[in-house]
Design a protein that fits this description.
Strand order of the largest sheet: 1-10-9-6-2-3-5
Structural class: alpha/beta
CATH architecture: 3-Layer(aba) Sandwich
Shape: globular
Helix content: 25-40%
Largest sheet: 7 strands, parallel
Number of strands: 10
Distance between the termini: 20 Å
Low-confidence stretches: none
Mean pLDDT: 96
Number of helices: 8
Amino acid sequence: MKVIIRNNAKDGGIWAARYIAAKIKEKAARTDEPFVLGLPTGSTPLNTYAELVRMVKAGELSFRNVISFNMDEYVGLPVEHPESYHSFMFTNLFNHIDEPLENIHILNGNAPDLAAECAAYEEAIVKAGGIDLFMGGIGEDGHIAFNEPFSPLDSRTRVVTLTQDTREVNSRFFGGDPEAVPSQALSVGVATVMASKEVMILAFGSKKARALASAIEGPLSHYNTVSALQNHPAGIIVCDESAIGEVKVNSYRYFKAVEAAEMGL
C-alpha cells in the first residue's frame, strides 16, 4: 500500500487528478484500448473532478477514449433529482469533459429488476476489459462505496441497506433530514473494486482519521471494508494531514520517506 500525504484536501485532490491523467495518457501511448475508470460521488472527489475538468478544457487531457463506471446510486430516487448520483456526476464532471455519453455507466436505482441491473453492471465491467483504476472515498465508519460495516469482502454489485449513520451523514444533502435519504442503494461490491488493476482511495479531513488509521494499521476486516486495500497489489491512499493524524508516528514517517525516495529527494 502506498500512502500519499498532502497538506490539505485541495492539494490531495489535485494530486489524484494528475495521477489519473498520467495513467490515461500512459495507456493511450501503448494501446488503442480504452482506459476504464471507476468513479465515486460525494464531497471528497470534488477537487479531483475540478482539476480533471480544468485539464480537459485546457487541452491537456481527453476522455474521448475513457469508459467510466460509477460506484453507486440511490434506490428509488429519480435520475433528475438534484441529489441523485446521476445528477451529481453530470453537474460536477460529465457535462464539462469530452467522454462520450455511451461510455458513461451509472447504476439505475429505478430499474424494474434491481438484481438484474446489478448483474448486468458486473457483466459490463468484464466486457470493458476490467477497471484500470478505481477511485473511491472512505466513509467515517471505514466503508467504501456503500459497503457498510460487515459487508462481505468478496461482495459484488448488489442492493444494500444503508445504516442510520450513513443516512445521517448524507442528510446534509437532503435538507438535514435523515429520513429524506433513501434507505437503500445499488453499490459495487468490495470485490468489484478490489478486482481493479489499481485502486486509489481519497481521505480528507479529521472526521476520516480514525477510519483511515484502522484501514492502514488495523486488521483486514469486514467491519472496516476499505481495509481490503491492504491485500491489493497496487493500492494507493491519498490523504491530507488531518486525515492521517491518527496513524502511528513511525507509520507516518515511513510513508513520507517512501514518497521522498520515489521522487529522488
